[in-house]
Amino acid sequence: MLALALILDALLGEPEVIWRRVPHPAALIGRLTDWLEARLNHGSSRKLKGVVALVAIIVACWVPAALLSLDFFFGVFEIIGAAVLLAHRSLVDHVMVVVRGLDAGLGAGRVAVAQIVGRDPETLDEAGVARAAIESTAENFSDGVVAPAFWFLIGGLPAMAVYKAVNTADSMIGHRNSRYQEFGWAAARLDDLLNWIPARLTGWLFCLVGRGQSAVEVMRRDAWLHRSPNAGWPEAEMAASLDVALAGPRVYDGQTVDDPYINPLGRKDASSHDIEAAVALVWRAWSVLLGIGVVLWLGAALLF
User: How far is residue 221's CA from residue 233's CA, in Å, rounded to a whole number?
Assistant: First the structure.
């Protein structure tokens, strides 16, 4: 099922002809999160209210996923559901828009990268746009492909849906500011926990298809420099494999975040060619994931 879902996602991505007519599951999760946040995120006991909201979001996602995972039509619904919750093709498509934008000019590159990162695009030069796109590629391959696939293997479509619910909620309310500090605490902490193993698996996947031992050394040394307990693993390995420096000082909402560089000896003059190299790296990592799925498939066939 995982192998077929990976192939289906890679072939079709997120067809506009479908998602123009019906809301994507991630959009539905977003609407539910917004609705709960507007009604609960005020007054006292905001941390407890955030826990209640997160439980409601998880249950709302788990129930339909559990129904779809019942053995109707030889698991076709579960395979389609898993493909919808994977995001490899959409990630690649969005990142390649940044490549085409940068090739057309800095302004177009800034507009394109603003769709996939939260930093202020007007503060970025060409190298900054390229590094932002590369960081997004590494982190979102972990969050959007490896982690959903991992949880699918652990608990089928219901576990995958729970992960997607938590990850989407974290992206919306898991911020460290006065509005979400307490209400989004549960979503942020649970997302960190659910991504702990997948993020490290992603880093090792990149090592396998990247620069091997030299990249492993950089990953082990620099992954801890990232403010996220998980994102540093795939980003550090990708930085080493592409020989670029990632992270470092950047601007969010007019405020400069003075983070250290990951792989500081790497090039800081990244370009659209480095983004293309990052995309090629995640395709190779995707191929390894597919191979794992096929091996598990054949193993199950031989055993049962």
Answer: 10
Task: For CA atoms 152, 158, 164, 170, give the dihedral sign.
Answer: negative
Q: Could you list the mean pLDDT of each consecutive 10-residue stretch along the chain, which spans 304 residues? A: 94 86 92 96 94 97 93 84 95 96 94 87 90 95 97 96 97 90 96 97 92 84 90 94 89 77 92 96 95 85 80
Q: Indicate the DSSP class of residue 117.
A: -
Please, is 55 exposed, middle or buried when counting C-beta atoms within 10 Å of its C-beta (0-12, 13-18, 19+)? exposed
- Specify the 3-state DSSP secondary structure of 64: helix
Structure tokens at 52: 């209640």
Q: List, in sequence order, every residue forming a beta bridge with 255; answer none if it has no partner.
A: 252
Please state, in angstroms and rounded to a whole number, the distance separating the CA atoms of residues 239 and 28: 34
Can you list the alpha helix ranges (DSSP code H) found in 42-184?
46-68, 76-85, 88-104, 106-113, 126-141, 147-173
Residues 6+ apart with CB under 8 A from 129: 98, 102, 106, 109, 110, 113, 121
Integer angstrom CA distances of residue 198 from 191, 204, 254: 11, 10, 32
259 neighbors 89 (Cβ within 8 angstroms): no
Question: 250 phi and psi, to 5 degrees?
Answer: -155, 170
Unique residue bearing structure tokens 């209400």:
183
pLDDT for the residue 213: 76
Measured distance CA(58)–CA(55) in Å, rounded: 5
Q: What is the DSSP string of 31-61?
A: HHHHHHHHHHSSSS-HHHHHHHHHHHHHHHH
